[in-house]
UniProtKB/TrEMBL annotation:
InterPro entries on file: Clan_AA_Asp_peptidase_C (IPR011969), Peptidase_aspartic_dom_sf (IPR021109), Retropepsin-like_bacterial (IPR034122)
Signal peptide residue numbers: none
Region (Disordered), start-end ranges: 1-71
Pfam families noted in UniProt: gag-asp_proteas (PF13975)
Biased composition (Basic and acidic residues): 1-19, 28-50
Protein name: Peptidase A2 domain-containing protein
Length: 208
């Protein structure tokens, strides 16, 4: 067969090759866009799952340097002491969260440092002498708007402002603890071991 040397033959083949390349590029771009959409959809589903999936019933705080831990299981809170025998947990007062509490069943009142009192805009009432797990001192009567530990919250908690406190902890005393059930068991302090009871003494108690 004679070789086709017509001048327009080469141009036609060239145009066909260009079309093939463009088709391949368009196909690759379409696949890239589809892949991006799939990744975006997967990321969206993952984020939505964080809001819709139920949280596990038990949350255990990471163990602190001194060995104390607080385990939250619904309304039940199990506190293990540090190497000094002190019980600690985190909670909130009013709109301030992530507060470190030292739980003191021998303290008649909860107490807060003066800087915490200023952040909460608390009233400074009558001056009284104090004695807690952190030592003797003085304080001023006040009322905390609410104290929340785990899923248990109590309104209008009687407390003291301790301007001399050098501790890194607020005191969770009996003005909170008397509103709930608690017990010592095998060296642990358990709050709400069987649930909780209604508040008394003018404080309003509810579960979150």
């Amino acid at each position: 067969m004679a070789e086709d040397k017509r001048w327009w033959k080469g141009d036609k083949d060239s145009d066909t090759s260009k079309e093939d390349v463009e088709d391949l590029l368009n196909e690759a771009e379409a696949k890239r866009l589809q892949r991006e959409e799939e990744l975006a959809e997967a990321e969206h589903r993952e984020k939505m799952a964080e809001f819709t999936d139920p949280a596990p019933s038990t949350m255990k705080e990471s163990e602190s340097d001194d060995g104390s831990t607080a385990e939250f299981d619904g309304q039940r809170i199990v506190l293990k002491p540090d190497r000094h025998g002190n019980f600690k947990c985190k909670g909130s007062i009013g709109n301030i969260s992530n507060i470190d509490f030292l739980v003191d069943t021998g303290a008649s009142f909860c107490s807060v440092k003066d800087e915490t009192a200023k952040m909460l805009n608390l009233d400074w009432g009558e001056k009284v002498e104090t004695e807690t797990a952190t030592g003797k001192g003085m304080g001023f009567r006040t009322t905390l708007p609410d104290v929340t530990i785990g899923q248990t919250s109590i309104k209008n908690v009687d407390a003291l402002i301790n301007p001399l406190s050098e501790s890194g902890y607020e005191i969770l005393g009996m003005s909170f603890l008397k509103q709930i059930e608690w017990e010592h068991d095998d060296g642990k302090l358990i709050l709400n071991p069987e649930g909780s009871k209604s508040g008394s003494g003018g404080s309003e108690h509810w579960l979150l």
